[in-house]
Specification:
- There is one protein chain.
- By secondary structure, the protein is mostly beta strands.
- The chain has an eight-stranded antiparallel beta barrel with strand order 1-3-4-5-6-7-8-11.
- It contains two helices and eleven strands; from the N terminus they run αββββαβββββββ.
Amino acid sequence: MMKLSKLPPFYLLAFLLLLVSVDSVAQTKYVMSGTPMFKVDGGSSLHDWSMTSQNGVGEGSFVIADGKLKTVRALTVNFVAETLKSGTKGLDTNAYKALNTGKNKEIRFDLKEFSSSGTSYLAKGDLTIAGVTKAVSFPVKLTTSGNKLTFEGSFDTKLTTFSVTPPTALLGTVKTHDDIKISFKSTFQPIL
């Protein structure tokens, strides 16, 4: 068997470059860590409202090259709908009824495409609310801290897009607006 030191310099260089390139690009499985934030903002004929959840699970397969995120191959995030809280019991009860949380326990996002242009990112995927799945796309801000990646973003949609009838209260005198804004911030870290 030929010793490594007796290989011609070209082959030795090619071998070393292959080792470096294999090491510098890696597809790694990540899971959601810390305290995520999922928020829904809306309004009604009486006042604006917000509901926030700080629970959720998620996992993804990220391609890291030279210590930087190159792309996301897969990502799934979900949380229990009834973890969304407004601080007002009546509002929460009406929201859960409109979302039919007895039947549709979770809100879920499945990434289908993740693209970048410089430091700007765009996520496209399927969002399921109240048992109805729709394609959505939105810009994403990415920050890194060590080996942790934090994704943050928001987008506008409508309740009726997901076949949710905007709730009413006080015998119909208070009406929820159809337009809502969904915001999120979640951190992922590699599985060691």
